Amino acid sequence: MKIRSFLTVLIVLLFFGSTPGFSAGSIQPSQQTPKHLTDISGNMSITVFDKEQVFDGYNLFALRRRNKATNKFDEGTILVTDMKGNVLNSLHSTDPRSRVSDPEMINSTTVFARDSKPFFWNLKTNVTQYFNFTAGTHDMEYNPETKTFLGKYFRDTGNYSGLPIKYNDLYEYDMDGNVLWFWNSSEYFPFNPELADGKTFRGANVWMHANAIFWDYPNDVIYMSARGLDTIYKIDKKTGDVIWGLGRLGNFTLYDINGNKKESLFYHQHAVELVGPNRMILYDNDYLNSSNPDPKVGRPRMVEIEFNEKTMEAKEVWTYTAPEEYFGRPWGDADRLPGGNRLGTFGWVSHDSYLTEVNPAGDIVWEMRINQTNQYAWGMYRAERFYDYFPVEVNDVSFDGEMLYVNVSLWDAIKTRAGRDITIRGLLDGEEIFTETIGLSPYYMKTGYAVNVGMSDFSGKFTLEVSDGEVTTEINLGEFGSSQTGLPLSPYFIPAIIAIPVLRKRSKKHLM
Ligand SMILES: [Ca+2]
Ligand SMILES: [Ca+2]
């Protein structure tokens, strides 16, 4: 079979399925115009939106309101917005000491979040389900395979310099609140006065200040960010042993993006998570970086680091440095998105909150800003992006009169830890030609998919349909006819060859 034309689509073709998403109708009548929402949405705006460079999606985040008169957080609200900033769903915490801060999607309709207790929130039905145990501090993880939770809890043991020493223990709970696993941090990180120096917080020696956990449950390990130590620790969930540290006090030789050896790659970091095998992203607050003119003021960054557990070398592979006015001593989040953009949460209450999407080159392609008022500041601790379709890029569509060659890149609609199976169907004028199940990569990594479709009489509109049973995306690849000797060149097609890693390749010839 000779390929007469090799064509590459350079733009992203998106054809949304019939899934309606979380329309404004999912906000319950009682929540339509409460003051908390008008207060916030009146100060929320989209300042950048380059539609050519972003996948349209939904933003999930919590805003915690700080009353400037009392200097205290007085309420919290979890929001889902579209890319234009319209609030589609909101959940207002009635807890005066609300801790809503880091909601995540656990499937295409359900948010997992924590207030004083962990809970699920169904965006379609607006039903919440609270679990009867305390949610701990900073971060909580949910494992959908075991239906268990991993939380982080402060424990005071002993005193130093007249202040209690605070440890950061980990607990795994089942849905009924039974403790299934306990990690005693004082066993693995006995208090070290040298490291505690200057690391006091809330009237205690919070010397490690573990502020993020990432439970890589498919591999039974936990990545824990110790902010006070400028180090990420990898913990073996089975044995509790600390496998390594990466950072100022860790075991890796560290290199910055220019290949220079560094003492540390980040200072008082937040929100570590994996974005690939041996690759992590995190938010570098750049706080207490002694190489800065004033260590108390830095330039916040998003950083991706590749680590090699054989050579014990870790190097920056992608970084973004935000403007000075985005700096916040605490808080922050960094996410890798489908297609390779990154989403940064610059939301500490010392300034307006920014949720900022940048392309791989570091240009801001989308941004939401929540302005402070004289009375209030809205802080954003973390954010997530999700979709009601499967983001896709068409890398190649070519037809030689008898055989159709298709090569696409796919991303999941929600961020998973383990990946999951989806179904791909090939349709000619709506008639199924083939169907198969493929595995989608975790953490919004790209999944390559290529297929060759050949038939004796191939004519009609060819569509790929990607579905998980709830979310369905149709990719319309165009009209083809077996009498054609090649496709006419449209403005979207230019002759070019781009090497795309293809994880799954199947040849389908003469299926009919
Ligand atoms: Ca986490
Ligand atoms: Ca995030």
Summarize the structure.
The protein has 512 residues and is mostly beta strands. Helices cover 3% and strands 48% of the residues.
Q: Which blocks of ≥5 consecutive residues have pLDDT under 50?
A: 1-31, 484-512
Termini gap? 17 Å
CATH structural fold name of the domain at 8-13 and 389-509:
Immunoglobulin-like
**What Rg, in angstroms, do the CA atoms define?**
24 Å
In which order are the strands of the major sheet placed? 19-18-23-22-21-20
Please give the CATH architecture of the domain at 8-13 and 389-509: Sandwich
Shape: globular
**Major β-sheet, in short?**
6 strands, mixed
* Overall pLDDT metric: 87
Alpha-beta classification: mainly beta
Oligomer: single chain
The CATH class designation of the domain at 8-13 and 389-509 is Mainly Beta
Helical segment tally? Answer: 3
Number of strands: 37
Helix content: under 10%
Say which CATH homologous superfamily of the domain at 8-13 and 389-509 is assigned: C2 domain
- Beta-strand proportion: over 45%
Ligand list: calcium ion
Could you describe the 3D structure shown?
This protein is mostly beta strands and 512 residues long. The protein has a domain at 8-13 and 389-509: C2 domain (Immunoglobulin-like, Sandwich). It contains 3 helices and 37 strands. The chain has helices at 35-41, 185-188, 193-196; strands at 8-9, 44-49, 58-67, 72-81, 87-93, 104-105, 110-114, 118-122, 128-130, 140-143, 148-160, 163-174, 179-183, 210-216, 221-226, 231-236, 242-247, 253-255, 261-262, 270-276, 279-284, 301-308, 313-321, 333-336, 342-346, 353-358, 364-370, 376-386, 392-399, 403-410, 420-428, 431-440, 447-454, 460-467, 472-480, 493-494, 504-509. The radius of gyration is 24 Å and the shape is globular. Residues 333, 335, 382-384 line the site of one calcium ion.
